[in-house]
Design goal:
By secondary structure, this protein is an alpha/beta fold. It folds into two domains: about 230 residues, Periplasmic binding protein-like II (D-Maltodextrin-Binding Protein, domain 2), CATH 3.40.190.10; about 100 residues, Periplasmic binding protein-like II (D-Maltodextrin-Binding Protein, domain 2, 3-Layer(aba) Sandwich). The chain contains 14 helices and 15 strands. The strands form five sheets. A five-stranded mixed beta sheet has the order 11-10-12-9-13, with helices on both faces. Strands 5-1-6 form a three-stranded parallel beta sheet. Helix 3 crosses helix 9. It is globular and about 60 Å long. The N terminus is likely disordered.
């Protein structure tokens, strides 16, 4: 009876997702020979496609890591660009195997949409972008201002909550298409544009006519833990996705990089030997090749490498590690033991 009740509850929570091939995701990926990943294609540093259709960004590298773990190559990924309102329907229906699209992990999304979120890949917070000439120094000065925002996002809810709690007058300009909402701000239709601070940094660098003419206000008005997500119902695939992200973090903790991973195969450190599959066991536990973590690091790099080239000092965004640094150096990035 309990099993029947649990099945009924899950079906209700998933809605259209109940028709997806829950429990068979991993087998389908192996059969297709490709991981289908729902991504952003317009957010520099996280998920963006160039004129030739090549994708790059931190979220893109998360897709590559999972593909490398399952299929042995980071190149075996099919990217499906999704708008904010489209993303949850796409993962629920089975159009994509996983979602890696600067998506905030929330209780409602996990409990009501039938999703399971993996480890946080970027700790973020919502902020505001304004024109420097407006002489606005604080978000508290935005009462009565027009604010551009996308619908169907935690951003829209946080914006309303912030203005309400601070007894400020809000004049939202709600536009679904990302390009259109950004254009509305830069053409002066809105006094401010709000989204995750990382997204604001991306927009400022890649879309502003003159980036130095714009500033991001100092306040963060929310917690935005960005994480990949999969459908409920395939615990094995969920474990692989989760431990693929942990592998990126653990590799950085152990000083294993894409450049020295081959040399590290000869390490005497028992943790490294287990991690890289020299000592067998982890691959068998996950149901994939023992070299799964080796394939990730060789093909994608560790978390520090991914952060640096996509959003860090080596990128146009030039973001500080901050909360996204390792726990050993004051950040929140922490991986459980891979044993």
């Amino acid at each position: 009876m309990k099993r029947i009740l649990a099945s009924a509850v899950l079906t209700l929570a998933l809605g259209t997702a109940a028709t997806a091939e829950a429990g068979q995701t991993l087998d389908n990926i192996k059969s297709k020979g490709v991981l289908t990943c729902g991504v952003n294609d317009k957010t520099a540093g996280f998920g963006a496609a160039d004129s030739t259709g090549n994708y790059a960004g931190l979220d893109i590298d998360v897709c590559k890591a999972v593909a490398a773990a399952i299929l042995g190559s980071p190149d075996k990924v099919k990217y499906v660009p999704l708008s904010a309102p489209q993303r949850f329907t796409a993962i629920q229906s089975g159009e994509v195997d996983m979602l890696s699209r600067n998506t905030t992990w929330t209780l409602g999304r996990e409990a009501q949409l039938g999703l399971l979120f993996g480890p946080v890949v970027f700790y973020d917070g919502q902020g505001f972008l304004v024109k420097k000439s407006a002489n606005i120094k604080s978000a508290k000065q935005l009462s009565g201002a027009t604010v551009c925002v996308q619908p169907g996002t935690t951003t829209e809810l946080n914006l309303a909550d912030y203005f309400r709690s601070n007894k400020m007058e809000l004049k939202p300009v709600v536009i679904e298409n990302l390009d259109e909402v950004e254009n509305a701000f830069f053409t002066g239709r809105c006094d401010a544009y709000t989204t995750d601070s990382s997204g604001l940094a991306s927009t400022r660098v890649s879309k502003a006519p003159k980036p130095d003419d714009y500033i991001i206000l100092p306040e963060l008005i929310s917690k935005e833990p960005l994480a990949p997500a999969v459908r409920q119902g395939d615990d094995q695939f969920y474990d692989i996705m989760r431990w693929s992200v942990f592998a990126l973090i653990q590799a950085e903790e152990k000083g294993i990089t894409s450049k020295n991973v081959d040399a590290m195969l000869k390490s005497d450190d028992p943790d490294i030997k287990r991690f890289l599959g020299v000592t067998e066991g982890n691959g068998k536990a996950l149901g994939i090749d023992e070299k799964w973590a080796y394939n990730i690091i060789k093909g994608v790099g560790n978390y520090g490498e991914i952060f640096e080239r996509n959003v860090g000092k080596g990128s146009p965004l030039k973001l500080e590690r901050g909360l996204n640094d390792l726990w050993t150096t004051g950040g929140l990035m922490y991986a459980p033991p891979a044993r």
